[in-house]
Amino acid sequence: MEAQKSGCIVNVSSIAGIRGLPNQLAYTASKHAVIGMTKTAALEGARYGIRVNAICPVFTQTPLVDKLFASVEGIDQKLLRTIPLRRFGEVEDIVNAIFWLCDDSSSFITAMPCLIALILNHIQSPNESYNLTPLGLCITPLNVMS
Questions:
Q1: Average pLDDT by stretches of 10, the chain with 146 residues
Q2: What amino acid positions are annotated as catalytic residues?
């Protein structure tokens, strides 16, 4: 990529790379690491015309997620309530985001963790009800220098 003065790298992180997930310390730490690696590689590769981004999907229909749903009764419905579209991502959704980040139409985008779908953050209030606040939306660039 350096020799041809162009290239595109898309790393796969997770919503866990943007926020913490309870009882998922190792997974969350690894996904935060992907975001840090993406930002650093983007700064290092920019002078060679290499763009580096990351996608951060919410729950996507995969065998791993299906296993989670089977192990905890009702967790799928609880998680669906945090996604405004009220559906889980499909593999094609993730692939399409990667294709777009590799396409010339996104040629000025680098060092960006891209959230796939809006996710709502549950914040428990004192009266035990939940307030929903937006956490992010594709495309929401994060500060590259932070």
A1: 95 91 91 96 96 92 91 90 87 91 92 73 36 35 39
A2: 27
Q: What is the pTM of this model?
A: 0.77
Residues 6+ apart with CB under 8 A from 14: 27, 31, 56, 57
Amino acid at 114: C
Cα–Cα distances (Å) from 5 to 1, 49, 144, in that order, read 6, 5, 21
Domains and CATH numbers, the chain: 7-136 (3.40.50.720)
Exposure string (b/e) for 114-123, b if CB count within 10 Å is 16 or more?
bbbbbbbeee
Helix then strand then coil, % of the chain, to nearest 5: 40, 25, 40
Dig out the tokens for 107 from the structure: 């040629």
Angle value at C-alpha 90, between 101 and 23, nearest 5 degrees: 95
